[in-house]
């Protein structure tokens, strides 16, 4: 299979996909709907045939990797499936969540930039 494929076709197993999640909701408007959309998105990633190589959580996105998150088990499943889960250290510090991280590891912006540069595509969710 080539890099240019139709929607629905299985993507090449070698394509490196990075996802940056910069919020704990998706979109603007109803916060409740935004939380539900984010849970649905993370769940859909667990069910996808092709997983991203890395998911980076920044800003309020770090709330998804810390205690009390409704998607912790889904993120643990993704991690078990080989997806690298990274949370911004400066963001954890800002929100005073350093001791609350429950899945993945702490990263910094230099690593995030490197990951995005090495990826074939980066998806940003905010």
Automatic annotation (TrEMBL):
InterPro entries: DsrEFH-like (IPR027396), Se_metab_YedF (IPR019870), Sulphur_relay_DsrE/F-like (IPR003787)
A Pfam family the protein falls into: DsrE
Protein name: Sulfurtransferase-like selenium metabolism protein YedF
Protein species of origin: Anaerovorax odorimutans
